[in-house]
Amino acid sequence: MSSVGVGATDLKAYLLLLREQLAPQRRRFLLLAALLLAEILLQVSQPQFLRYFVNGALNRAAEGTLLVLGGCYLATALAGQTAAVAAQHCGVSVAWNSGDRLRARLVDQCLRLDADYHRRHPPGELLDRIDGDVTKLAGVLSRTVLDVVGQLLLMICVLAALCVLDWRLGLLYVPLWGASLPLLTRGFGRSMPELEAGRQAGTGLLGWLEERLSATEDIRANGAVPHVLRDLGDRLTAYTATAARAARAAVRWPMSVQALSQLSFVLALSLGTWLHQRRELSTGDVLAALSYVTVLRQPLSRITQQLGEFEEAVVSLRRVRRMLARRPGLADGTAELGAGALPVEFDHVTFAYPGGGNVLSDVSFLLPPGRQLGVVGRTGCGKSTLIRLLFRFHDPDKGAVRLAGHDTRTLRLTSLRGRVALVTQEVHILSGTLRDNLTLFDPSVDDRRVLRALDEVGLTPWYETLPEGLDTPLGGAGTGLSAGQAQLVALVRAWVRDPGLVLLDEFSSRLDPHSEQLLHSALRRFLSGRTAVIVAHRLQTLREVDQVLVLGESGPLEYGPREDLMAHPESELGRLLRAGEVIW
Ligand SMILES: Nc1ncnc2c1ncn2[C@@H]1O[C@H](COP(=O)(O)OP(=O)(O)OP(=O)(O)O)[C@@H](O)[C@H]1O
After folding, report:
1. Which of 17, 283, 311, 447 is the most buried (most CB within 10 A)?
2. Residue of the nearest CA to atom 5 in ligand 1?
3. What tens digit of pLDDT does each residue of 369-382 get?
């Protein structure tokens, strides 16, 4: 998509989004249109009352007539203001509703996009799209079309009223304002490249800030605060330069339009005075003409403002569309997984990350349902990658990963991830109650099931200290959890979902020996009757498994029943144990 100017594609996309977002709130949108129309009609009628009032006063009209005219003038002014405020209120509510719907769509899309997309777009960047871009877009979605059409209508009505007042006023203003329209369209879209660069720079800065702020502890612990601040200074300098260019580009165009509207007022004053001196216009007519010319300034400034906002919104629209158009790298399948423990098969699987060498080469194993496999090997040999393939964060380059006989590429992702639980050492505690954190906001999960899972994992004594039980707030300003407790909470999350395959990736690395002891007895109960693949760095974890796969740098080194491998002095597993690669 071109980034220069506002093109037909942008307008088409805007109208499509407009229809999509406004269809569910058609009534409110029509009310907004009616209010804007009322505001315009009241604005056009107001100078007429002024004109008749002044002419009447100068021609000694009856007091009653003057009172009625004055009252009408005030009433139209008041009604016009009321319509403007009501339109503002209605416009904001239409904007918020359409904005919220769009935000929900983007969050849904974000949650579906694959790990690779998230790796390249940090949360700060995504936030800027979900909130910053949508806020800009929502504003113009509700009002731009109505405002531009309404202001053009106002312009036509005012020009007609000027023509009726005196043909010479019409002769001056119709061509003058007619010429202003090409000025508007000529300037429109010119500042797009600068605006786009400004938005992109802002997004990049937010992504950078989010990354650094989430690494606060590491930065402080390593004394890196001054380096981070210096880097921030450099980035802010670059950002300010780009943002200033965007701001300058945005004001160039409205300024030329403003100059035109000032000129038109001076011309009205001169022509009106001249005609008045020649007694061809009454004082009331001159005042009405000046009043109309003042009103006439509004359409230009409102249209330029709306079009300026529209330009910014088009930048946001392009970014939002790019995000919505992004298809997850992994195509969804259609097959569903049944209930019960799932057999797992790796069939000559080879995998490399983009741009890298093979991480897994020709890995094969078959794990019957209800059995547990321990995966061991040196750091970086691909253990977590094997787990990620099972959860279908990635697809193998060669071979197939099968669950219950289905190639994972053919499975519906929601079915796969509903039946497979992944517990890693990275546990995110979300702002919400303990219940929310354990059920991940699924209201259908019964409290008794949650309490039983807490008990199985040995968290009951901790749970009993919580002031509000399952309603205790966690995360944010709520109760904090130690890293070990957080890992146990992650295990409860998995337990509550009753998975047919459990993937554990160094999940017990942050537990003290006592908690680890408790966890392992809980784990035995949890894994009984379920299939599990466990990345193990400790002998105690290995004791939970039936089979062991030893991975080496150039592929699988060994695969077989744990007891056989451990008993065999020449086995790879025995060598790893002796070398301390697996901790006793
Ligand atoms: N998202 C990624 N993109 C590119 N390369 C990656 C990615 N994730 C991991 N790697 C690389 O793949 C290799 C295997 O990583 P993996 O995390 O699977 O190893 P591991 O055996 O689990 O290591 P550890 O025992 O340290 O957890 C490493 O060389 C790593 O640098």
Report:
1. 311
2. 353
3. 999 999 988 888 89
